[in-house]
Each structure stands twice: as C-alpha cells, then as structure tokens.
Amino acid sequence: MSVTITLIDATLGAVVTDVSLKQLDDPTWGEIHTAFLEYGVLVFPGQHLSDDEQGEFALHFGAIEKLGPRQKKGVAPISNQKADGSVVRPDEEGYKLLRGNEGWHTDSTYMPLASKAAMLSALVVPPEGGETGFADMRAAYDELDDTLKEKLEPLSAYHSLYYSQEKAGYQHNTDHLYGFHDKGAPLRHVIKTHPETGRKSLYTGRHAYGIPGMDPAESDALLSTLLEEACQPPRLYRHAWEVGDLVVWDNRCVMHCACSYDTQYPRVLRGSRIAGEVATELAPTFEDERAAAFHPTTSNASRLAR
C-alpha cells in the first residue's frame, strides 16, 4: 500500500488518499506518522470508519484519553443531536460547550495531562457551515520577532475550562461534564517545544489566562493579541466536512475551532482524543477559584495536591 499525500494551500495540512485506515500495515503507518509530524493536520476523505475501526486507528498515536461516560471503544460523540433525534437547546449544557468550542483552542490544556493528538470523523453534517478550522502555531511562532520571542520564552499561563466558558458568556450549572474538575488549573509554557520534532510553537488558546508576575489586564491583552495574530492566513485551514471524512491533528503544535452553523440542524462528529506522554504533557496545577463554586466541599489543599 502506497499513500498519496497532497499538500493543502496553507502552512499546515495535507490530504491523504490511496489508503484504507481499516487495514494499515506497518510501512503505511510509518508514512502516515511521518506526514503527521511534518504537516500537523492530515485529512483522510471518505474513510467511513466504524466506532471500532476509528478506535483502532487512534491507538496508533497512543493511549486514548477518557472523555467521560459517553465514550465507548475509544470514541465519543461530538454532537448537538440527542438520543431521541432532537437537537440540544441553547439552555442545555451540551449546547454551551459546543458553542464555546468555536474559540481557538488546544484540547485538554485545562487538564493536568494535555492531549497529544485528536481526530474527528463526520457522520452527519449541516447543509452549510459547521466546518472545523485549524491554525499552525509553529508558523505563528516563526513569524514573531526576536524581541517578542525572548519576552515570551520564560512565560507561562494558567489554563481553565471554567475561565474560557465564562469568558465566552456561558455559565454552567453542573460539574458532570469533562473538563469541569477540582484538580486545579494547569500552568503551561506559552512557548512549547515539540517533543518529537524539536520545533517551537505558540501554546495558548482560549483556555489560557493569568500569566504569573504580570498584571491581569496586561496578561489578557498579550494572550489575546498573540491568539488573534497567530490565527491568520496563510496559517489557517478550514475543513468543510463530508460524511465519511476523518481528520487527525497534532495538539502539540496546532490549534483548532468549530465554525458556526444553523443549530436547528444536526451536526454529528465522532471524536477520539489521544493522551499526551506524562514526561512532556503533564503540568503542575494550582487553585482555580472558579472550581470552588462547583466543588465547594473540596479543600484548597486537596486541589493543589493533585
């Protein structure tokens, strides 16, 4: 089996054809992995994988991150459609999370162990809109001037899903959703060195806030400016979904976001998220005051100890 790799017209991304992800041999996986590290985002059109098949493909990248009780066989629904076929309402928790995902982010930076990679496949798509955008944080870093690179190198920022959802205007009334935990806010470097390629990237996103040692307003302004300027052409690719597509991306150097669509229509994607290696993706955690409202019986000490 020999794959065909066609570059996307951006600083990241490639379309991979002439391959069946249902039956990968070692040499073909080697080609895919090499392309994954080089291009950051890989698009596999028309794969039409089952739950089991996507879960098996995801395992090639590493251990599967557990996303909650709805996850089975290494996959979880990323969907606005409920079991009875209706779509979630604006006052429901799932709707708020889906809309929050329209901000640029990297998966699971708000957890102690951040995600290494992630993939989505399309089962149901709306008649228009609902694409997924990807932004190349390697190229964004490369574009920074040397003075700014030097300023950012020692900086870190806290990451919190409580923070990002609140900033997006969504108040949640439950802690039974992935990401709303009492483990504390991870503190992550603003500049990340990729553990496999050695390339540097911006590592911020909508979950990032509160650079230690910096005035909160100054921190917010800096992080917002970095994010806005990073997510610009030619560093962007927007994938228009077709049923059967699968897209995988490297969370260590790529940010992504959902694009808006008419939410009266169902949009059903199937996600798999690959856990990062402890040596490079585990971050120290510190108290997140917003979590106290969800976990009032959890002491500060126990939060900080996790």
From TrEMBL:
Gene3D superfamilies: Clavaminate synthase-like. GO terms for molecular function: metal ion binding; taurine dioxygenase activity. The keyword Protein transport does not apply. Residues 11-271 form the TauD/TfdA-like domain. One of its GO terms (cellular component) is cytoplasm. InterPro entries: AtsK-like, TauD-like_sf, TauD/TfdA-like. Belongs to the TfdA dioxygenase family. This is Taurine catabolism dioxygenase TauD. It comes from OM182 bacterium MED-G24.
